[in-house]
Amino acid sequence: MFALLLALAACAPKEVPSPAGGRPLNLWSVERDGRQSWLLGTCHFGITLDAALPPPADHSLRDARVVFAEADVASVQGMEALNLMWSDASLSDRLEPAAWRRLVWRAGAIPATMIDHLPPWVASQLPTIADAAKAPGGGKGMDLEVLDRAKARGIPTRFVETLAQQVELLRGFDDAFLADLNRPSNPAAEQQATRALTDVCYGGSEDLAALLPPDDPATGPLLTRRNAAWMPVIEPELATGGAFVAVGAAHMLGDEGLVARLRARGFTVTRQLTRAPPAARPPPSDRAPLEVPVKQQAEVLAWGAQVTPVVVDQVCTEGGLPLTCLFPDRAACVSRLTRDAGLCVEQAEADPDGAAARATRFQGCLLAGAALEAIVHERIPDSPGCALITAAVQQMGG
Known about the structure:
This protein is of the alpha/beta class. The chain contains 22 helices and 6 strands. The chain has a 6-stranded mixed β-sheet with strand order 4-3-5-2-1-6, with helices on both faces. α17 (297-315) packs antiparallel against α19 (330-349) and α19 runs antiparallel to α20 (355-366). The chain is elongated, with a radius of gyration of 23 Å.
């Protein structure tokens, strides 16, 4: 359930009939004393801004005086992003074996040695992000699209909370995210959750209980308390007029949502409708099934046992860049890569594309975790050769 609130992604096709007056948007006009502003409930992945805010409703953003979003995630790139998303703890050691294989399988092409050092709150989003990348817009996310358009028009941008506040909050739910990841797969429950998200993102549903039961422990910290904290930030700007506030769609809904809170403060809040064609839903998801389809497991493991010592010996060659840049000595190189090779073989085991893809993925996976760790902990020597490794990994983080 924690991942639902963070992602609000919709990937399953489900037609939602439009009412006679038009299709409801996740857009509300906010008026008081003749001054008008706007609220947009965003779905962070899986639907484009054009689909969620079709003309003529897009004038609400185009003509805004100031634009608010949740946090300035676009400003965090390179080393800062790598540090934010790195954990020294091994995630594979904290998950049940089946849960770990399921996560790696559903995360797509991300090397397992990188996934192994993600904090749980980041790892829980990998399947959603991988799915969203296949959807219209390539997974960039509505929130970043809003900020990009504001920047292009020279509209000032502000934020209802800091990124540090968001990260601190999410890190406090590590145990809950781990529990979610470890929970046995439940296709029926996941389909139900996806339908609820689809209803919100594409059909304008206001059924918060379908997204998150009222007694869910995430409701208070992730929704209610944040809504209360945001009100003193956005209310003066909404009252002034010309403000455009774009935050997660779940924050708009329910008795403690922003819409209800603003109405209680004397604002007239009116949901907007459109007669534009319904947003084009992605085709039925072709994402990996919940359980890893293990094919030829014995053959893959035998292949891994055969290839690992050969590859590790080649990589840990004296004078080579990996040994020179990432490890204090050959023994440390062999030890680390032999351990990580086990994770990479597990990932290769689930690869449906055969031996060639398996070998390519294995080789790419092997050094990723060690390179990230060396960069995060600033252990890479300052040399032109090592700078190539640093630049490549920083590009991955940005």
